[in-house]
Amino acid sequence: MAWQSVLDELVRERGPALVGHAYLLTGDVRDAEDLVQDALVKVFAGRRAADQVDSAEAYVRRAIHTLFVDGYRRRRRWVAVRHLTATRETSPPDGPHAPPELLVGNRLVLARALATLGPRERACVVLHHVEDLPVAEIAELLGLSSGAVKRYLSDARAALRVHLDPLDEPAEERLTVTTRRTR
Fold first, then answer.
1. Averaged pLDDT, 88-100
2. Rounded to two decimals, what is the model's pTM?
3. Helix axis angle, 53-70 to 3-26, nearest 10°
4. Which domains does the chain carry?
């Protein structure tokens, strides 16, 4: 199968899933689409393009993770000045072309919580909890040690607990309320 037909089939069949996956990393639909586009260019501009859709998707997913982690500083600088040059649409598209965040329950809470994580923590969380990869595979994929992946996951879970805890009040206030209820 020629690389052009592999690319066409990959984008047609797996494109939305790749953008959805990238959205979990970036927290922004446009950034996710750009990340997928950059990953596709990186994979298919290389000398060794995949000749099967499954292997091409694996290469693209790995490129997504690499580009996300490596490009964090550049994106961070751009976010600081982006509001000066661009405006967001007021109403997103509906139907099958709706952005992934409209299709996910509690999207705002989850997106805000994921946005608090650093790029490696976020990549580890997405790979472990969304892609269901074991620590060893995440370590290999991101070029980290297993211990580092475990540490990133632990730190990320602690940070996410703060943002996703259903009780927004501090522990001292909860104890006070509990004490009043039992009297």
1. 49
2. 0.54
3. 40
4. 1-104 (no CATH), 105-183 (1.10.10.10)
Render 104-160 in DSSP notation, one character per residue.
Answer: STTHHHHHHHHHTS-HHHHHHHIIIIIS---HHHHHHHHT--HHHHHHHHHHHHHHH
The b/e string for 5-30 (b: 16+ C-beta within 10 A; e otherwise) is ebbebbbeebeeebbbbbbbbbbbbe
Highest-pLDDT range among 11-25, 40-54, 74-88, 164-178? 11-25
SS3 94: coil
**Distances in Å between the alpha carbon of 12 and those of 8, 109, 138?**
6, 30, 27
Angle at 143 between CA 141 and CA 145, to 5 degrees: 105
